[in-house]
Amino acid sequence: MATSSIRLDKELVDRASIMAEALNRTTPKQIEHWAKIGEIMEDNPDLPYEFVKQAIIAKAEKEAGKLEAYEFG
């Protein structure tokens, strides 16, 4: 993954740092997380935040091999 330096508002970085600490992420990973949510929400304006959040969690569980087959009936 390529990286680049960008300038961000100090207040945004400070808020991201607090959230990152609470959620056991680095500050850059917290900002990436917010950007991912923002991108999904802009692409899908009719979806509620909770649905988007659960979709991100489900994708991570799938990638970790933690999903179980659902049995109908």
Automatic annotation (TrEMBL):
It comes from the Bacteria. This is ParD-like antitoxin of type II toxin-antitoxin system. It comes from Oceanospirillum sediminis.
